[in-house]
């Protein structure tokens, strides 16, 4: 199976596995795990923040960050295509008692300007309205094709929020993909937000873990929320050891994933019945449509899975493929051949390369 559903399917490197076995550990709940402390200090320095906190997942990281920012009954503004709004189980509303307000995106990942401004009431003293308290930005923007938002735009959003007295949280699950694609250091990107969450367990290949970073005072609040959510771990150095390697050794190689994504997009553009703009692919996410009216997106994904290429549906009639360390250039070429064959088959036909594993959902992050 050529696994293109997500970069969450990356496996830890041999160096990570060794480091996890040899990790010096302590009780992280008491702040006494030296490897966790080293990871948190390294992460904070890497993104230019005062402090950082290890989280079991990006979903919990975003949730803890938002809850640490906003009071109950306030409004949290997020993109209508963002992971926080679509893929994190409504945790902001369920656990934080905050209104999650979705704002539409332009195709390039930016917010629709007038729609963003419309979320701020003309009279903030009018008790009918939930008052905005936080603006959440996603970079790279997953459902807009993994685009890396320009630094100037991120600064504009920060200035827009500051002028209205609200904070900014950056969901940087793939922050280092943005760094590599844009050539802008992660710390400069993170400087456009009060807090940032980024994953160690996607393209960086650690088996588990995400980081939340911000001011020292903010991270203290995050730790309290993490405890409330059940995310405080004990001898977490075995996790942190892999995270240190992820940060120190794995960010630069993301350029290889980006090159493979462009390679796949160029192959797909040569296949009759596929709608894709290779020029829109800037990181490791490829979105495309199948134009054959005899096949729905779900049917195409299922047929591709039976033929040995795992993809996901991605809404709006789109299909997503994500490149990562577990996929090399030769896999990309073979995947393109398989997908061309699937489209060329009479409906109901098979390629003869079936894989017994079902292709399921399980989140689109």
Automatic annotation (TrEMBL):
GO terms for cellular component: cytosol. The keyword GTP-binding does not apply. GO terms for molecular function: L-allo-threonine aldolase activity. Residues 3-288 form the Aromatic amino acid beta-eliminating lyase/threonine aldolase domain. The modification N6-(pyridoxal phosphate)lysine is found at residue 202. It holds the Pfam family Beta_elim_lyase. InterPro entries: ArAA_b-elim_lyase/Thr_aldolase (IPR001597), Low_specificity_L-TA-like (IPR023603), PyrdxlP-dep_Trfase (IPR015424), PyrdxlP-dep_Trfase_major (IPR015421), PyrdxlP-dep_Trfase_small (IPR015422). Its cofactor is pyridoxal 5'-phosphate. GO terms for biological process: glycine biosynthetic process; L-threonine catabolic process. Keywords: Lyase, Pyridoxal phosphate. Belongs to the threonine aldolase family. This is Threonine aldolase.
